[in-house]
Automatic annotation (TrEMBL):
PANTHER family: CHORISMATE MUTASE (PTHR38041). Keywords: Isomerase. This is Chorismate mutase. Gene3D superfamilies: Chorismate mutase. It comes from Methanolobus zinderi. One of its GO terms (biological process) is salicylic acid biosynthetic process. Its EC number is 5.4.99.5. Residues 1-89 form the Chorismate mutase domain. It is an enzyme of class 5 (isomerase). Coiled coil: none annotated. InterPro entries: Chorismate_II_sf, Chorismate_mutase-related, Chorismate_mutase_arc, CM_dom_sf, CM_II_prokaryot.
Length: 95
């Protein structure tokens, strides 16, 4: 039988992986901003936000996860990326 310590070690490993993935995702803000500045695009792209959220909700549905919770997580991830792009463009935390 698995001990609580073993399960917690597995959770810790997953948490570390998630932090690394969040770091990678936020890290892409620089490349995205560069392309947007070249193309004259706005930082917040509501159409793309929908694409990302719909994709996350579909994946969550396939795995029988609570879709509204998964959507909240992805809304936070999108916000973090947008905030990072604003920081990098020297605008601070504008909406
Ligand atoms: C990363 C982008 O910039 C913003 C952040 C997004 C995201 O974190 O997925 C999606 C759309 C944009 O509002 C992008 O346009 O792809």
């Amino acid at each position: 039988m698995t001990t609580i310590q073993e399960v917690r070690a597995e959770i810790e490993e997953i948490d570390r992986e998630m932090i690394e993935l969040i770091h990678r995702r936020v890290g892409l803000a620089e490349k995205v901003l560069e392309s947007k500045q070249k193309e004259g695009m706005q930082i917040n792209d509501t159409g793309q936000n929908h694409v990302v959220l719909d994709r996350a909700v579909d994946s969550a549905t396939e795995r029988n996860l609570d879709t509204s919770s998964v959507k909240e997580i992805f809304e936070i991830l999108i916000r973090m990326n947008i905030e990072r792009q604003h920081e990098l463009s020297g605008e601070g935390n504008l909406p």
